[in-house]
Each structure stands twice: as C-alpha cells, then as structure tokens.
Amino acid sequence: MLFVLLCFAAGTAGAQDSIVAQCVARFPQGGARAQCVAPWLDDIVMRQSAPAALEAAEGLVKSGVMNVNDCHIMGHAVGHASWRKERNLERAFRACTSACLQGCMHGAVEAFVIDGPEGQTTPPRVRAFCDTLGMQSLERRQCLHGLGHGVMHVYRKDLLAAADACETIGGRHEADLCLGGLWMQWAHFRIHQGAEAYAQVAPTMCDGVRDWHVPECARAVGGGAMFATGHDPARSGAICRLLPEGQHRDCQRGVDYEVGLIKAGLGHAHGH
Domain containing 31: what range? Predict the structure, then answer.
C-alpha cells in the first residue's frame, strides 16, 4: 500500500520512498511525524514541483499512511523548499497551490522572511508584496499570515517584540493577519516535542502577552495542542484546561477551529 501510494503521488522510487515509512515507525502521530517527511517533500519539489509535493502530502493524509488529519505542516515544508528552489518570493509563492490549507503559501513567505535579501524582508516590505496579490484575495490573506510565521522565527523568543513588528505593517486587518501567523508559529515551535511536553509548557505560553493579545494567543495554544496530540480533540481540550482559567474558552476555540477544518476536509476554500 505504501509503495503504491508513494509511486503514484510523487513519481519517485528507491531510498527516498523509505523516508515516509521510517517517519511513521520513529514518531508518534502528530507534528513530529509530519516534520520528519520534509526531506522527502523537498526532493519532490526540487525534482518536480511544489504542486507535485503538495499532492503527495495530501495523498499521505487521504490514504491514512501517516495517520494525520491534515497536511498543513507538510505544506509549510513545501513552501520552504519552493523558496530554496526559486530564490524569488513571487515565483516561490505563485508555485504553491492552496492545498494543505494554504500551508505552502505560508511556508514560502516564512522562508523568505528568514532567509531573504537583507533589507527586503521587513514586515512593511513583505506587506507591499502581499498587496500585489489582490487586496481582497485569499492569496493576500495567506501571504500576510505567512509573514507572521516568519516574524516569529526572526524574533524567536521575544514574543512582545515580534508582536510589535506585526503592528508596523499598517492597518488593523493586516496586522491581525500577521499576528495570526505569529501566534500559530509561537505554538508550533513546541508541537514537535509531543503531547506530553506540549502540555507542560502550554499553561505559560501566553505569560507576559499584552492583555488585548491574550485571547488570540490562547486560541493558538489550543490549535497547537491539536497538532501536538495528532489532532485528538479530547487530549487537546484537556491541555486547554491546564491554562489559566481566563484562557480556557479561547484555547478551546483553537481546538474547535481545527476540528472544523478537519470536518471540512482538505478543500481549498478555507485556511488558517
């Protein structure tokens, strides 16, 4: 079953195919398993294209081989590979499809912010690129979300400074889209450690956040719990209840949002 899937979805063979089987054997269901297959997806992007890699990632979800409920994390990896292949933000971004909840779009912008030319990766400069995608477009929204992921990578441990950077791009709506990606990345730094490790750090993840940012930070902690637990709503809800009481409801909102995405399937009209 695994061999047939890999040959169909990616058109590759040999040692590269074994990466998926090794990842399934090595890691429990959750973010670490999805991250583990990044080299396999990178190879597909480099040898073929980003759409081919996204199709392969979707195939892993639909077949049940990976035992994961969405390919968003894998989509981010595809976006990173697209940037490394193109070394041009517009080409890397436009190479992505909206598969895997637009994860490739997020990843391409994220990788550019991390590794792009000096002076061109500031939030206002990236926002200017996002604006070229159409002011009301899905692509622009996902571009600004990806900017938030990248900003959080740049500031890494300084959450307040990262949030302030998103506020510099101009416009409440645009800043909130950037912040959405930032909060998600803040949670995703920890999801690869597994559910138990995530549960230990979750209660303090929004400590020190400015009061008006706490609800969305807590919501992202709930969304991150879903990735850390392999999209287990019950375990994720239990993690939410470990947070300060005032954050329980918002954390649960994040869990419920991910549940809604799963129920909607891998379709392209919705996204993070």
Answer: 2-264
